[in-house]
């Protein structure tokens, strides 16, 4: 079975030879598919660095939304650092791994407090464009030359993904598209959409099945860091692999931001709680943010009325923003690693300091918002989506103004005193 896995790897590696030269821009999210893609990419470059003089530079881009689950973020930054070390030592600096972030004022909490944005929803998904697409667009605009985008999209991921890929497919000289087995592992290419550049997007692993992705990851060390394998990814995804039998047991976990309220259920967070109980705080916070923003019982109290909008409500009002401030402060105090990226970038840290500084002077409003939340919660008990268990807001609502002020002051102290080291 291992020989079969290695044969698939070799055939996928052949796809990189068909990608034209220029500036290669590779997307890396820290997930299983992009991890395999980057591993294969580095192996190909290492083998062929003296033959591919047409490749100007290879950029591996990681878009840090600032709200990644801590263990996933730690893994992604570890990979970025290892890639740059390997490139300097083995690739003559051909590859450069870069962390992108949202523009100042375009991060989650700035938009929430300064513009009153409610938590993202499937009908108002304002996050993806600002956190991931715009930073990449800005980067691509700075490149002067032929841009080749390479990603880890797979046709098997979803029916919609497969339809979209096939709709915009570009026929390549040496490959044909259609139903095929991953043993053939053909290259897939589509026209670039949404990045504002005229480029072709190549997907070398498009035809791989998910089980094959896991088998390939489990069968090898990280090419760019032979001291480590991909066992951490298997653990985070809850995957068990039997290489001898070629069997994979998986839980169907997909990762996004820990504050992602677009999905109705947080399967990834609930899975990670089994590995790290502290993550329950993030799962609870996500649920409460969704409740404050979108529960029909709470909207009249924590959103501004706007008859022009469908549903009759628009931005978070001062009370809604107050509750978000309390949740933010609680996380900073009890689980600061969940906001580690905010602590790395001075501009982002400064924005949080300004937010907390403003609301410290509004302690009466904070207290009033909590009392309002408790009254509504008690009057509609059993009707709200949130449960009493682990309800941070309900617990704090029984405290006095002094406690609330101390919570914000402590969060402010942590922000000012912690100096994170960038990778």
Structural description of this entry:
40% of the residues are buried. The protein has 423 residues and is of the alpha/beta class. It has helices spanning 2-17, 32-48, 70-90, 108-114, 127-141, 159-167, 210-218, 231-237, 267-273, 280-294, 299-302, 318-334, 340-344, 346-360, 363-379, 392-396, 401-417; strands at residues 22-27, 55-63, 95-100, 147-150, 188-191, 200-203, 221-222, 225-229, 240-242, 247-249, 303-305, 313-316. It is built from 17 helices and 12 strands. The longest helix has 21 residues, at 70-90. Helix 1 (2-17) crosses helix 2, helix 12 (318-334) crosses helix 15 (363-379) and helix 14 (346-360) packs antiparallel against helix 17. The strands form 4 sheets. Strands 3-2-1-4-6-5 form a 6-stranded mixed beta sheet.
List keywords for this structure.
423 residues; alpha/beta; elongated; 12 strands; two-stranded antiparallel sheet
- Measured on Cα atoms, how large is the radius of gyration? 23 Å
Number of helices: 17
Instruction: Quote the distance from N terminus to C terminus.
Output: 38 Å
Q: How many DSSP E strands? A: 12
Q: Name the shape in a single word.
A: elongated
Q: Output the structural class.
A: alpha/beta
Percent helix: 40-55%
Low-pLDDT sequence parts = 171-183
Largest sheet: 6 strands, mixed
**SSE pattern:** HEHEHEHHEHEEHEEHEEHHHEEHHHHHH
Which strand order do you get reading across the main beta sheet? 3-2-1-4-6-5
- pLDDT averaged residue by residue: 87
Beta-strand fraction estimate? 5-15%
């Amino acid at each position: 079975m291992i020989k079969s896995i290695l044969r698939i790897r070799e055939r996928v590696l052949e796809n990189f030879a068909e990608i034209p030269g220029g500036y290669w821009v590779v997307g890396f999210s820290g997930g299983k598919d992009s991890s395999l893609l980057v591993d294969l990419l580095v192996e190909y470059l290492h083998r062929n660095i003296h033959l591919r003089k047409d490749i100007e530079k290879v950029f591996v881009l990681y878009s840090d939304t600032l709200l990644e689950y801590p263990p996933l973020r730690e893994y992604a930054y570890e990979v970025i650092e290892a890639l740059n070390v390997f490139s300097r030592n083995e690739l003559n600096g051909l590859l450069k791994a870069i962390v992108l972030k949202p523009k100042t004022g375009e991060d989650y909490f700035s938009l929430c407090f300064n513009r009153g944005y409610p938590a993202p929803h499937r009908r108002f998904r304002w996050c993806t464009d600002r956190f991931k697409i715009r930073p990449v667009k800005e980067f691509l605009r700075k490149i002067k030359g032929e841009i080749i985008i390479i990603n880890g999209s797979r046709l098997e991921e979803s029916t919609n993904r497969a339809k979209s890929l096939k709709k915009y497919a570009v026929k390549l000289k040496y490959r044909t598209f259609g139903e095929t087995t991953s043993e053939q592992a053909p290259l897939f290419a589509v026209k670039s959409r949404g990045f504002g550049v005229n480029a072709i997007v190549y997907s070398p692993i498009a035809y791989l099945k998910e089980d094959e992705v896991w088998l390939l990851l489990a069968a090898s060390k990280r090419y760019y860091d032979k001291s480590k394998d991909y066992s951490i990814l298997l653990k985070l995804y809850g995957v068990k692999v039997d290489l001898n039998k070629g069997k994979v047991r998986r839980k169907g976990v997909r990762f996004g931001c820990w504050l992602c309220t677009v999905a109705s259920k947080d399967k990834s967070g609930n899975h990670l709680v089994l590995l790290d109980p502290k993550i329950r705080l993030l799962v609870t916070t996500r649920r409460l943010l969704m409740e404050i923003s979108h529960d029909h019982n709470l909207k009249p109290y924590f959103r501004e009325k706007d008859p022009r909008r469908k549903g009759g409500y628009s931005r978070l009002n001062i009370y809604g923003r107050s509750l978000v401030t309390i949740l933010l402060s609680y996380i900073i105090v009890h689980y600061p690693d969940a906001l580690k990226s905010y602590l790395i970038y001075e501009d982002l840290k400064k924005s949080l300091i300004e937010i907390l500084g403003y609301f410290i002077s509004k302690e009466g409003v904070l207290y009033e918002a909590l009392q309002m939340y408790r009254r509504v919660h008690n009057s509609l008990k059993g009707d709200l989506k949130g449960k009493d268990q682990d309800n941070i807001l309900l617990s704090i609502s029984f405290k006095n103004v002094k406690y609330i002020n101390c919570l914000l002051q402590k969060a402010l102290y942590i922000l000012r005193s912690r100096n994170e080291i960038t990778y």
